[in-house]
Amino acid sequence: MARARIIPLFVPHLGCPNGCVFCDQKRITGSPSPVSGADVAAALERVRARGETGAELAFYGGSFTAVSRALQLELLEAAGPYLADGTVSAIRLSTRPDAVDEDTLAMLREHGVRTVELGAQSMSDAVLAASGRGHTAADTVRAAGLVKKAGLRLILQMMTGLPGADRDTDRDTACKLIALAPYGARIYPTVIVKGTVLEDMWRAGTYREHTVADAVAVCADILPLFEQAGIKVIRLGLNPTAELSAGGAAAGAYHPALGELVRSEIMLRRAAALLAGIPAGSFVTLGVAPERVSAMTGQHRANIAALTRRFDLGGVRIRPVDAAGDTVVLVDAGPGF
Ligand code: SF4
C-alpha cells in the first residue's frame, strides 16, 4: 500500500516551557516563524488545488500540546474542512512526554489526530537532567501508555550521545523504548547546533562531541534491536537542511547519509562474524539481498577494504542472493575466485 503523502508544518519552539541544551528549533526546522490556522489552511488549500487526497498533515518541530489550548484548537480546526472532504486523511504531531494527559489526547483524537510522536530522547534520568529536558523517564512511560490507551498510534523518538550518555545508556534507552511497544521509532544522534547551550558546553570542554563514528557504532547496536522487535525505525539522523549543512551544525553526528552508514556497519559486523577463523589469503564471496549490495560494499568500498585488512584476505566480492533483510551468507571461500 502506498504511504500517505505527508504535509509537514513546523510549530517551532512555540509555548515550549523548556530549554533542552541541544535545541534550537528555529535552526533545526529551518522555519523561523510560528504557524497559525491560516498557514494550515493555505498549505492544505494548495494540496486540494492539486486534486490530491489522503495526505497526512504533520505538526513537527516543537511540542504541540505544550502550546496554548486555543492555538492547538486553531491549528486543528483549520484542518477540519480538509479532513471532511478527504484532502487530509489523518493528522500526526510530535510533543513532549510531560505535555500529554487524557483530556488533551481525547481532544486530539476528536480532531483527526491519529499518530502522536513523543520525544523520549533518553530513559536515563541523569542524561535527561544533564540535557535540560525537564522530564523524567517515568513521564515517558506514563505518556506512552496514555497515547496507546487513547487509541492513537505511538511513535517514540530517542537521541544518542546526549550529555552524560554512553553506548550502554543509549542501548538501555533503546531496550526500554522497545518494551513500550511503539508502532515506530525515530533515532536522532546528537548534533551540536550553532547557538545552543550544547555548543557552549562543547566549547567549554564539559561535553564530548558525539561524532559520526560514535553515532554509527551505537546505532548499529540499537537499530537491529528495534527491527528484531518488529518496530520500524522511520528516521535515523536529522533531516539534512541547507542551513545545517552550511555550518549550522557546528559538530556532532550530522551526516546526510547517516542511515546508510549505519546499515553498512551492521552488514560489516555480520560479515566479520561469518569470517571469524577464515584462513589468511582466502578469496571470499559474500551473498546479500540485492537491495543490500551497496550497504555491504560500503561507501567507497569501505567494508571490502575493512574485511580484507582485518582477515588478511586475498579478495572479497559481493553477490546478490535470495536473502532477507541484513542477512549475510558465505557463498564461497577458497584459494582464488
Ligand atoms: S522540548 Fe526541548 S527540544 Fe522540544 S522544542 Fe522544547 S527545548 Fe526544543
Characterization of this structure:
This protein is α/β, with parallel strands linked by helices and 337 residues long. The protein folds into two domains: 6-256, Alpha-Beta Barrel (TIM Barrel), CATH 3.20.20.70; 267-334. Helices cover 41% and strands 21% of the residues. It is built from 13 helices and twelve strands. The chain has helices at residues 25-29, 37-49, 69-84, 102-110, 125-130, 137-149, 167-179, 197-203, 212-228, 242-248, 258-275, 293-297, 302-311, and strands at residues 6-10, 55-60, 88-95, 113-121, 153-160, 184-189, 191-193, 232-236, 249-252, 283-288, 315-320, 329-334. The strands form three sheets. Strands 1-2-3-4-5-6-8 form a seven-stranded parallel sheet. Strands 11-10-12 form a three-stranded mixed sheet. Helix 7 (167-179) links the parallel strand 5 and strand 6 (184-189). Helix 2 packs parallel to helix 3, helix 9 (212-228) packs across helix 11 and helix 11 packs parallel to helix 13 (302-311). The longest helix is centred in the C-terminal third of the chain and has 18 residues, at 258-275. It is globular and about 70 Å long. The two termini are 42 Å apart. The model has no long low-confidence stretch (mean pLDDT 93). The protein binds iron/sulfur cluster. The site of iron/sulfur cluster (SF4) has 11 residues, from loops. Iron/sulfur cluster (SF4) is lined by residues 13, 16, 18-20, 23, 25, 62-63, 96, 119.
